[in-house]
Amino acid sequence: MNRKWTLVAGMAVLLGACAFLAGGVKAQSSGTLHAAAPGMPGPQPGDKKAEEQFKNIQVLKGVPASQIFPTMQFITASLGVECEFCHVEGAFEKDDKKNKQTARKMMEMMFTINADTFEGHREVTCYSCHRGSAEPVAIPAVMMEDPKPGAGEAKRGASKESAAPGADALIDKYVQAAGGTAAIEKITSRVMKGTIDFGGHSLPIDIYARDPEKRISFTHMPEGDNVTAFNGQEGWLGMPGRPLREMHGSELDAAAIDADLHLATHLKQMFSELQVKGTERVGDREAYVVAGQRAGKTPIRLYFDAQTGLLVRLVRFGDTALGWMPTQIDYADYRDADGVKIPCRWTLARPNGRFTIQVSEVKQNVPVDESKFVKPAQEAQKEPAK
Q1: Which residue ranges of the chain lie beneath pLDDT 50?
Q2: Cα end-to-end span (Å), the chain
Q3: Closest Cα partner for 289 from 163, 162, 167, 159?
Q4: Whole-model pTM?
Q5: Which of 107, 136, 235, 287 is the Cys-Cys partner for 230 at CB 3.0 to 4.6 Å?
Q6: Can you give the CATH number for the domain in which 113 is found?
Q7: Residue 111 covered by a domain
Q8: Are 82 and 174 within one domain?
């Protein structure tokens, strides 16, 4: 998969998805997953298994078919490679490349280590050894500069933690900083226009949101619109000349969060447990870090500006068969709109790329036709012969 489509994949994530692989390509995974092991994603009712949808599945048997694209993205991010590193372009099921054979052995080794050493918990992943390199990192790197105390890590000193507000207090402060519960709950729709910048390119984007939890974006590309949508139950992604792709699992979870116009007032309800983890620097600002656990879902980390109380960063994780894929969203340029402060710039960063959306125009509580959130019909796609 070339870099252009990888960047487009990142664009789709922020607007409600965790993975978008272009062209309707059937990425044939290599791969027998120890599916019963704790921490592994399991199939949901009605889900196809990978081997039922794709050809030549050997190691990832039993994994939901919807997990295959995110899992392949996890590998490319962990090794810093593209799909063609292991696969034959246009014939992903073929075993012609030695790297594909090696990948199968490495996945088996990873599953065995986790099963035998960590009681089946997914403690070791591809990234544990590769750290963004195709070759495993076996030798510690030489220190190039003097270490900076606490750089890149939350400060967990006793005095800091004892002085930090509780998680509930931080969320309450955020709600008040954003305008207060009453003002937030009055917002029924939001229409935004702006630009999305990635890889040196800038494209216009329109985003429409409507309560409850409906959102659709149109990135206007030269060949047509790239669409990312969530209607409260279903999510989908589309590109000109490409088959519509439905969201599943972690994609739907991310889409629901992005579509929630009242997220600030819903935060406490989302989590089964909240814990303050100290402080970190976000840009040039100090922020309190709150880790939130969710029943049956991956955790989320929230970063609240220590002075303003506003949410300046959110880190969430997409679940794949091999490990969690992090997505970091930094919020900035907060502006007042109808008594509510909203970020007009946000930057999404993932292991394989980053992009920024800058909003230039915001309208709230304006009519947004329900028809915008109706999923287009599409012809049934035939699977390749096995």
Answers
A1: 1-40, 143-144, 150-154, 156-161, 380-386
A2: 23
A3: 167
A4: 0.73
A5: 235
A6: 1.10.468
A7: yes
A8: no
